[in-house]
Amino acid sequence: MSDEAPGAADGTPTEAVPEPAGPAPLGVVRAPTGHAPVDAGLERLADADHLPADEHLAVYEDVHRALRDELTALDAPAPASVSVSATPYDHRS
């Protein structure tokens, strides 16, 4: 055994490999939209700030699914309990 610094097999010193940095918030400001489900999805993105990068995908997919569901709901027909008149005009002839 030697007291010398670790190096390559030919005796040249090797550089130390730095440790990867831990998760850190990006500091992205999320402006509220005024639509509660959308705002909840945007807030959910903050969860990714505290996760390692390889776990971000699950958060992004969850938020994407929620936002897609909200957009799909906009195209859904009105509930049957809402009465919509077939003729919006009062015919007085």
What's the short version?
The protein has 93 residues and is mainly alpha-helical. The protein is built from two helices and no strands.
Overview of the molecule:
The chain is rod-shaped and about 105 Å long. With 93 residues, the chain is mostly helical. It is built from 2 helices and no strands.
Topology:
Blueprint: H1 36-44, H2 56-75
Helix pairs in contact: 1-2
Describe the largest sheet: none
* H-E order: HH
Low-confidence stretches: none
Portion in strands: under 5%
DSSP strand tally: 0
Helix fraction by DSSP (H/I, runs of at least 4): 25-40%
Q: Any idea what the radius of gyration is? A: 28 Å
Shape: rod-shaped
Return the structural class: mainly alpha
Task: Report the total helices.
Answer: 2
First CA to last CA: what distance?
Answer: 109 Å
Overall mean pLDDT: 80
